[in-house]
Every structure is written in C-alpha cells, then in structure tokens.
Amino acid sequence: MFKRVLISTDLSDGLLRLGKFLPSLAAGGMEHIVFVHSVPLWTKGQIPREDTEKISLARDRLNGILTQVPDGLQVEVEVLSGNPTENILKAAERYKSEVMILGASHRNLLSEKLFGSTTLELSGRTNIPMMTIPTALLSPLTAEELDLRCRHLFRYILLPYADTQASGVLLEEFKRYAQKRPPNSLERCMLAWVIDAGVLRNVPKDYKLKEAHEKLAPLKAELEAIGLQVDVEVRLGEPVLDILDLAQMSDICAVALASNSLGKILDWFPSFAAEVLRRSCEPVIFFPSRR
C-alpha cells in the first residue's frame, strides 16, 4: 500500500527484526525504507550534548542486520540525538516517507502517557499515516512466520465505519493511498459497521441494519472501482469490542482508523480510535485528518 516507509525503533520494540526481512518487505511493494533511532542527549555534564558512543553503538547494530538488500529497494539508517518526535518528523520530510511505522506496547490507563507519547505528538503534527505494530505480535513469531507477515503487511485492511466525520476522513485517505498502491500490496478490505446496540431505543433493529447496508453499498462500489476486493460486515453490538473481534477472527492484516482528536491529550481517553489503538492485538494504521 505504501512505497516509501519510515520505521522508527527504540531497538527493544521488535521492529529491529524487520531489518532481517528486507526482501519480504520489498515483495510487499516497498521501494524505500529508512530506519530511524533516537538517542537521548548526554546530560551528565553542564551542557547537554550528543551521546556519540551510544549513537555509534546503535548505528553499528542497525547496519549489522541490514545486509540482505534486494534489487529495487533502497535502505537508509538515521541514528539521531534528541527528541524522538522531532527526529522522526525531520527524517520523514527528508526521505518523503508515505507511512511511519512505530512499536506499541499495551499498558494501563495510569501509564497512558508512556504508552503513546510519541504517537500522540506525531498525530497532531503530521499528515503522514502512522502504523503501530504491537511488540507482543512480533516477539513470538518465528522467522518463517515473520517472513510471511512482512509480505502481507498491507494485504487485507479492516475499515471501521459509522457514518461520522472520522469515517469520511478514513475512507477519503484510504482511497487516496489505495489508488497509487504498488503491485503485490493492498488487495482486499473489509467495511465494518458495528451499530451500538446499547443506544437503540424505539428504532427497529432490522431497519438500522438495512439502512447501514444501503449506506455502505455505494462505498463498496467506490472501493471495487479501484480494483479492491471488498467485504461488508454489519452487526449490532459494542463498536470497540466487535471491531477487535473482527480483527482477530478475520484474515485481516491491520485495522485502519482516523480521528480528529487523537493528538489531543484530553480527548485521548474517550476516543473510539484511541481505544482500538490501545487494545488491538493487530497492527493499526492511523490516518490523521488533513482538514
């Protein structure tokens, strides 16, 4: 789905392993990959400065695994000192990255700032999509399994829909990238509308289901017109729980989300997008709004 990819790693989030599967990533359509690692400033002296020793060690570790670069794929390594968010944004601009891949670990609400601080900051400062990959997903995979995962990173995407502004942003951005996708990348998507059964009062459930199918029909046709195989799922339930269930029980590779509020700390907790991002065991692609 994306040709130019930035992978930001702290060297302990599992994303470093992706460097061992460059031919597989290239087989999935990637043409340019930049690995970015940020080293904190050395602050033991009176004036903060670059920690040249840690920078050198990190660069050696990254370069040590990026050995199997196939023809047609360009790979860069950026080891920078200072604020991770600033470094990622500078590298993404420099290399014209189309998506930023970051690691994600599951934490409770009390440690939410630690969980998503970089993701939160980036979402409010960039129009570039971000993909979070849970550390717990990568860690147990064997080399054979991870090879296949890298080839299918964007093969089948789940698109939650609810006839909201965020849903409109999601489809608009998804189509924009899908139309220029490289070969052997995105092939299929699922439009999923989970109607919150808890808010239905006097409205007949059959009517709501029928209405949802009717609204999704033209959207399905638009996606099929750009060469995608499109599945449609409409159900009553709890939106977050049912989307997570679909992600686990279907053959999807990632969940796609969009929200105008993800980058605002005060709006982080009640956000549907944030809740799915926090709890998903599958990769999540977040599309920031361009509006």
Automatic annotation (TrEMBL):
Q: Where is the signal peptide?
A: none
Q: Which SUPFAM superfamilies does its entry note?
A: Adenine nucleotide alpha hydrolases-like
InterPro entries to which the protein is assigned, alphabetical:
Rossmann-like_a/b/a_fold (IPR014729), UspA (IPR006016)
- Coiled-coil residues are none
Q: Where are the transmembrane segments?
A: none
Q: UspA domain: from which residue to which, for each copy?
A: 1-133
Family, per the entry? Belongs to the universal stress protein A family.
Protein's recorded name: Universal stress protein
Which species expresses this protein natively? Laspinema palackyanum D2a
